[in-house]
Amino acid sequence: MSQDLYETLGIPRDADGDTIKKAYRKLARQLHPDVNPDPETQERFKDVSRAYEVLSDPEKRRMYDLGGDPFNGAGGGFAGAGAGFSFTDIMDAFFGGAAGGAAGGGRGPRPRVRRGQDALIRLEVDLAEAAFGTTRELKVDTAVLCTLCQGSGAAPGSSPTTCETCHGRGETVHLQRSFLGEIRTMRPCAACRGFGTIIPEPCRECSGDGRVRSRRSLNVKIPAGVDAGTRVQLSGQGEVGPGGGPAGDLYVEIHVAEHPVFARHGADLHCQVTVPMTAAALGTSLDLPLLEADLVEEGAESDSEVETSVALDIRPGTQSGHEQVIRGLGVPALRGSGRGDIVVRVVVETPTRLDPRQEELLKELAAIRHEESPEGTVRTAPPKSVFGRFRDAFNPR
């Protein structure tokens, strides 16, 4: 081609590499055959690509500036055997990437040292432990640093060497012929797996990974107020990374065991107390055990340090289903101060079997109260809400 290559790209002869690349990007977006299929435009695109092939390569550019043939007389056309160019150049022109010119500039070798993965374990605790906090010892099976090679992956006395296939770049060039010429693509080196180095003598303990599996113990502090599903983060206690890289984090997910007395609803504790019919009618008082009683049973607290029960007064005439609230004796807040409440539901137990004397006394009481043949009280059911009517429409009886 007789036209000057600098004029083809529209750049001065002292243009630097960035200027050459920007000029090629601009022209390639305008002239690429997929954008403009006109035959003359395609020829110009070939000229632009050939100019970029020469000027982006320092050695070919030097030869061209001295008046030589940068293609060694091999024909020099865009579709000729000597007109190879990198596929990343076209992608760079259209998408603005920084893959570099035909002279190289790929992603480079990937590091052997990388951050480890996070780990998740599940821990079941009692309701009292979740409410008031505790410290538990855990056995964790994770990847730890190999003490023999200190994470390098190489046997003692040896070290990684530069890969002879990719010469440390971590990538190899693959050529493919197409209507555009020889397209060069970069792929991770198969010999070194993209690392750029090879470990000739891997460590016998970790087989070159820089880490080994091991079981270790650590103490986990469970804060007061945690609930089922809460995750406690332990920074740097997860998997050690490949090549002895920094460890990930360990997450401890809390599962709360079912309690024989209390059911937790947020910060409140719900329980049920069953009293005889006579106690509900006359009133009574009983001791309600608190969640703190579990701590005393486990030896975490002494009897003198904490109250284990509270007096619950059942007022005369208490009806079955009545709820009483004991303030401030529920679960401590996870964030902030204060505690929830204890909600006690009273269930009145009606005797199912009476001896003759008990039956006689109840009949006397009914006569005194004029309740020998009670009619009961019939009340109209409350009107259904909009949502209730909507539900019944889709659930006919």
TrEMBL record:
How is the cofactor bound here? Binds 2 Zn(2+) ions per monomer.
Tell me one Pfam family matched here: DnaJ_CXXCXGXG
Q: Where is the J domain?
A: 4-68
Its cofactor is: Zn(2+)
Q: Name one GO cellular component term.
A: cytoplasm
Q: Provide the CR-type domain boundaries.
A: 133-215
Which residues are recorded as binding Zn(2+) 2?
A: 163, 166, 189, 192
**Gene3D superfamilies from the UniProt entry:** DnaJ domain (1.10.287.110), Heat shock protein DnaJ, cysteine-rich domain (2.10.230.10), Urease metallochaperone UreE, N-terminal domain (2.60.260.20)
Q: Where in the cell is it found?
A: Cytoplasm
An example GO BP is:
response to heat
Print the domain comment field. The J domain is necessary and sufficient to stimulate DnaK ATPase activity. Zinc center 1 plays an important role in the autonomous, DnaK-independent chaperone activity of DnaJ. Zinc center 2 is essential for interaction with DnaK and for DnaJ activity.
**How is the subunit organization of this protein annotated in UniProt?**
Homodimer.
Q: State the family it belongs to.
A: Belongs to the DnaJ family.
**How is this protein named in the record?**
Chaperone protein DnaJ
Q: What is the lineage of its organism?
A: Bacteria, Bacillati, Actinomycetota, Actinomycetes, Propionibacteriales
